[in-house]
């Protein structure tokens, strides 16, 4: 039984990944949503699953520093004794603004949700990841978090978001460095056709984001399957073409 933990599965990339993993036989998919009791997630609960696969929803409010611990306690009580793959997907994108105009409240909120929340998740999941034979940690990052490419990609207008994703990239590299049997990798999924992605695309003068959710699934799942300590871990990849980004 392969156990996958994905944050932010109520919509967008998280929802698409959840459905894709459920289509594989022998998978337990643990997905976080704000409130698992909310009726709006009933269609997700009833989504078809392959033989031997199932979905477990847990409640994690993105900025909470206590919800992840409670969720893990519930999972242990339900018999979950390891996590093979953790995908830190949940995130927000504040309004685009250059550094001098970025609202500090936006910077703080983005950092809490895009950087601190994945760190809290890693801390509480670590014992379950350690119990896996070949644990994998995947951070859904963004090219906007690349410090090296800030000029090349014209990323200056995305101050609050860029700071938070650069922080997430650092966490990913640290997970790799401090856990010698892990595969830990950050990925840029592309500018994806989600509510957040389309807003970002419009801020860049595009009508909508160019990458579909199907594209993300078709690229990310094989990438995670084939990720190794030697070739993948500790790095930052562009899923658009499989190339490596500089941090």
From TrEMBL:
InterPro entries: Fungal_SecMetab_SDRs (IPR051468), NAD(P)-bd_dom_sf (IPR036291), SDR_fam (IPR002347). Keywords: NADP, Oxidoreductase. SUPFAM superfamilies: NAD(P)-binding Rossmann-fold domains (SSF51735). GO terms for molecular function: oxidoreductase activity. One of its GO terms (cellular component) is cytoplasm. The keyword Methyltransferase does not apply. It comes from the Eukaryota. Belongs to the short-chain dehydrogenases/reductases (SDR) family. This is NAD(P)-binding protein. The lineage of its organism: Eukaryota, Fungi, Dikarya, Ascomycota, Pezizomycotina.
